[in-house]
Design a protein that fits this description.
The chain is mainly alpha-helical. It has a domain at 5-99. The chain contains eight helices and no strands. The protein has helices at 5-26, 31-49, 51-59, 64-78, 82-97, 101-109, 112-118, 121-131. Helix 1 (5-26) packs antiparallel against helix 2 (31-49), helix 2 (31-49) packs across helix 3 and helix 4 (64-78) runs antiparallel to helix 5 (82-97). The radius of gyration is 17 Å and the shape is globular. 20% of the residues are buried. The model has no long low-confidence stretch (mean pLDDT 92).
Length: 138
């Protein structure tokens, strides 16, 4: 594989962070699980792309509103306002990582089981609308 050992650990931490955040939401916005998921997600992201690139990603002028919402949501989760924190954090997450949705959708369409499901007529239209994919007229 083309990933270094630190990047592999970062992928695992990011995945566990997403799982813990999902569990925190499923278990009625459990603050501890959400906080742990946020810490794991941010540390995994830092290991995947490196500390300097992580800082520059969050500090870009175009991403400033998303960064403020994302960090503000994490802080709200830490001060025991998990419902409001998750809502604010989701807004920030969509602003920060919304550009990656077409790439993720393209990757998912290449997977054997999920790809067939995502190419079904009505599901394809909804997925394209959510990801913001553009269709060619040619």
């Amino acid at each position: 594989m083309w990933l270094t050992d630190a990047q592999k650990i970062g992928v695992a931490l990011t995945s566990f962070g997403g799982i813990f955040m999902l569990l925190g939401v499923i278990l009625f916005f459990d603050g501890a699980l959400l906080a742990l998921g946020n810490i794991l997600f941010l540390s995994g992201l830092t290991l995947i792309i490196g500390p300097q690139k992580t800082f520059y990603f969050f500090a870009r002028k175009q991403k400033l509103r998303g960064t403020v919402c994302f960090i503000g949501g994490i802080l709200l989760v830490f001060i025991k306002w998990p419902l409001v924190g998750v809502i604010v954090e989701t807004i920030g997450f969509l602003n920060l990582f919304g550009d990656f949705f077409p790439v993720i959708l393209t990757f998912l369409r290449q997977l054997p089981g999920i790809g067939h499901l995502l190419t079904l007529p009505y599901i394809r239209d909804v997925a394209d609308r959510i990801a913001g994919s553009r269709t060619s007229v040619v």
